[in-house]
Amino acid sequence: MKELRVGMIGYGFMGRAHSNAYKRLTDFFPVQHRPVLKAVCARNAQKAKAFADTWGYERVETDWRRVVEAPDIDLIDIGSPNNTHRDIAVAAAKNGKMVVCEKPLAMNVAEAEEMTRAVEEAGVPNMVWFNYRRVPAIALAKQLVEEGRIGKPFHYRATYLQDWTISEDVPQGGAALWRLDADVAGSGVTGDLLAHSIDTAMWLNGPIVEVVAKTETFVKERLHQVTGQRAPVRIDDACMFLAVFANGSMGTFESTRYARGRKNFNTFELNGADGSVYFDLEEPEYLQFFEYKQLQSGKKVESHLTGWRKIHTTNSEHPYMNRYWVPGTCIGYEHTFLNALADFVMGIESGKPTQPDFRNALQTQKVCDAVLESANTGKWVKTGVTL
Fold this sequence. Notes:
Elements: E1 2-9, H1 13-28, E2 33-41, H2 45-55, E3 59-61, H3 64-68, E4 75-78, H4 85-94, E5 98-101, H5 109-122, E6 126-128, H6 136-146, E7 153-161, H7 182-185, H8 189-205, E8 208-216, E9 221-223, E10 230-232, E11 238-245, E12 250-256, E13 265-272, E14 275-280, E15 286-291, E16 293-296, E17 299-302, E18 308-312, H9 333-350, H10 358-377, E19 381-382
Parallel strand pairs: 1-2, 1-4, 2-3, 4-5, 5-6, 7-12
Antiparallel strand pairs: 7-13, 8-11, 8-19, 9-10, 11-12, 13-14, 14-15, 15-18, 16-17
Helix pairs in contact: 1-9, 4-5, 5-10, 6-8, 8-10
């Protein structure tokens, strides 16, 4: 097998999820490349060393430039905070490295455009880890849309709810809470959570062309862990927006970190003339499908079996499931990254680029920026998305 030599930037939550995927790839997927964990990079050498020992990385670096310039590394995986994505990705591309990056792609559209130019000019394979596309139930929803089972779309609605920042005592900044620091994260729930919802929506239902939004920051000041001082909170704790899709359908999106009892509540529903689909990440093995019209002898006719079906997406004919267990047994969150990595590696081997690549993720960034602009101005904003 060929080696795929990996340099990981960051050792947090995503570093673990990605590392697990590299270690298990060839156990489940018949690819021609075997990942080799060469280096992990973080500013804290001691914690990076503990991470390397746990996951099997050969060495530790504290300067990401040494990793992107290293001749024994083929792929740079960016799992560090959002304000580092641009510099690392651009440098990696200039050094001829493949680049995979956590979402959101960048702090803003300008950075995302620079990153996209860099990987395209260098001609290096690239991907953004919008892992929810690789949930079998969501991939099945995509299949149903492409098969025409939903028909003309009318409505798309999405929610992404958490509750971990409700307490006013939660600080901002630092290694664990950088998502609350606007200088590091760029935005709050818009970039962190709604980026996932937007990516899924446009994958299933096409471009979002116009939005109007409202955001709220419920706790106005928090202790900053780096400075030790109380400072204004400049990220959005909650966001809701209306959307118009290029196909004429309407969308509603809501996200917050103040939904008591919701830990990672990620749902969507798409309603069309011939059917509907609904997904809830808290029951990830299920896709709900309502069929109003079905194909019979090449024609769509009203079904005599109308009603919501709760499809247990664990059969071998369901997306990705032929690589895992017997029907009725579920895969987990970590497998979505494994599925994404498998698609990326198979894309390298086939020459067909994996989606979402940087250019695709740039379109999601455009919607995020338009949402924030609308929330600031109170006006409808065109996104400029081109998919």
